[in-house]
Amino acid sequence: MVTDAWGRPVTDIRISVTKRCNFACVYCHDEGLGPVARPHAPHDEELSVTEVERLVAVAREYGIRSVKFTGGEPLIREDLEEIVERTVRQVPDVSLTTNGSLLAGRAERLRDAGLKRVNVSLDSLDPTAFREIRRGALAPVLRGIREALRVGLTPVKLNMVVFRLTVASIPKMIDYVGSEEGLKLQLIQFMPELVQHARFSVDLREVRAWLEAHASRVLVREMHHRRIYLFDRTEVELVDPVRNPEFCANCHRIRVTHRGELKGCLNRNDDLVPTRGLDDAALRAAFRRVITTRVPFYGGYVTDLPAAPGETALLARAPTPGPADGART
Ligand code: SAM
Ligand code: SF4
Fold first, then answer.
1. Measured between alpha carbons, how far is 72 from 25 in angstroms, rounded to an integer?
2. Could you tell which of 21, 190, 191 is best to mutate to test the pocket of ligand 2, judged by most ligand atoms within 8 Å of the CB?
3. Domain-embedded: residue 230
């Protein structure tokens, strides 16, 4: 296992297989490369199956034990099953983050290829609000979630971005997640850094306080020191990276862009290390470089980080979704 200069072991890699997407979410950061400008046409620059395989082989040499595919929308790639199949031969723990719209027809094949789990982005259970946020239809996404559960791609983690248009429906989402065995919820703080929509931000302190008041227990996960709130029938994880040095101090992840550049931090683009066309020795050196140049906290590298929001989150005073005995760990 390789540890960076700040003592953080690097155990995870997140690989973007495309910049293309069939949605156009209002907040999209496209894995830190700026908003997806709806590039539907195939990109010559996308990593090939063989290129992914080679990157994963070197990642494994460096002790990376978990691979997540993302995008753009990874299911736009018709060869994703093949990518997964070749990846699991080297690193068995392979998962996927998807908008879910194309998942229903492929969940079983992906499972057969060796995929272990999926994260499906679900910002709202209301079709109109969902379309307003994601510019796409809700029904196929819900079908995708059901199919992922049926074929055992579990836990199915639902990613909900917490921002102005979603914050009031968090309690409803917790109820939904608790109603189906195998679902978990990840509340992802809206990241304004790379999309410049500071107006979307909400004050997360109020969300945290609400979760603490309503959960039965709070745990802390090693990765990013994320808080996990346990409700009666479900788990809710809070992913809160914005201006959060503690999050960065516990980050064990590096990334690969769809063009094959290694990236040490989601929020930086000045640390891209190209890998295309490198021989084995140079590819290993590229991995060493991206790991050794990781920064302890991205904040100093973002020159125009929008000011913290003064607004108060309008979290609905909804009924308690679970018991609240106040126990903490
Ligand atoms: N297309 C896939 C999807 O939507 O799940 C995978 C790529 S998407 C970039 C990965 C995750 O990042 C999604 O859950 C999405 O909601 C989230 N995301 C995108 N832009 C964001 C932002 N500005 N702040 C917080 N999360 C964001
Ligand atoms: Fe971005 Fe994913 Fe939305 Fe596509 S579905 S626009 S990649 S967040």
1. 11
2. 21
3. yes
Residue 35 lies in a domain: yes
Asked if residue 2 belongs to a domain, the reply is no
Q: Comparing 82-86, 185-189, 204-208, 243-247, which segment has the lowest mean pLDDT?
A: 243-247
Q: Tell me, yes or no, whether 6 lies in a domain.
A: no
pTM above 0.85, yes or no: yes
What residues does ligand 1 touch, defined as CB less than 6 Å away? 21, 27-31, 70-71, 73, 97-99, 121, 159, 161, 188, 190-191, 195
**pLDDT tens digit string along 160-180?**
999 999 999 999 999 999 999
Buried b (16+ CB within 10 A) or exposed e, 206-219: ebbebbeebbeebe
Residue 238 has pLDDT above 90, yes or no: yes
Whether 218 lines ligand 2, by a CB cut-off of 6 Å, is: no
State pLDDT tens for residues 253-263: 999 999 999 99
Give the CATH number, domain containing residue 249. Answer: 3.20.20.70
